[in-house]
Amino acid sequence: MQQQAPHRPAWSAALFSVVVMIACLGASAAPMGAAVTPRVAAVVPASGPPRGGATITIQGSGFTGVERVLFGTIAARSVKVLSPRSIQVLTPAHAAGSVHVKVVTGGGSSPATAQDRYAYVGPPAVTGLAPAIGSTAGGTVVQVTGERFLGVRQVLLGEQPA
Q1: Which pLDDT tens digit goes with each residue over 128-153?
Q2: By the number of CB atoms within 10 A of the CB, which of 88, 140, 145, 152 ranks highest?
Q3: Within-domain flag for 23
Q4: Strand partners for 74
């Protein structure tokens, strides 16, 4: 006997039962697996340092039987599946730049999307101060220019907090 399995949504479980019923003879059941392609919906936070070691959460679907998580072509240092919709990983070291985060399971690899991007961001770099001099009594407003100021928690002028 040959029968086509019904279509299942991508978020559904990958294991189900096949039941064959014959009138007056009863029924027989057997487990069957279906390969579910993983999908990445979000990477939180979406950026971190090139040295790696940041804990991030990957949200999506089909995270059953996760074999590995890749940042570009580099495997995550630690992978903890929290649920079929959530994974926690430690980022690997990587050169500065943006990469796709790929989840690999027995059902395949998550396709590259705009939602699976992770940015390796280098440290802040100061390129200018205006004005360059001020009163030793303090109170001078200083404009700091540069790049990669994301997540800056403190600014020091010399050893003094601004």
Answers
A1: 989 988 888 888 898 999 988 877 78
A2: 88
A3: no
A4: 71
